[in-house]
Amino acid sequence: MNNDRGFEILEDMGVWRSPTELAKHRAIIRCETERLVIAAPDGTVLTHWWLYALIEIPAPEGTARFTPDPNGPEYVEITDEYLITSLRKRLEHEPDTDHVSRRNWYPLYSQLAVGLAVLVVVLYLLSTQFLNSVPDYLVNTQKNAIGEGIFDALLRREGVERCSSIAGDASLTILKRRIANDFDGEFRVVRGIDSPSLVLPGNLLILNASLLFSFEDPHVIAGHVLLAMEQERENDSLIRFTDTLRPIESVRLVIGYDLEADVFDRFTDQIIEPSDVPVSLESLAQRFKQAGVLAKPFADAAAGSGFDGDGFLQVANFEGDLRAATVLGDADWLQLKNICR
Question: Tens digit of pLDDT for each residue in 75-99?
Answer without folding.
Answer: 999 999 888 888 888 887 654 444 4
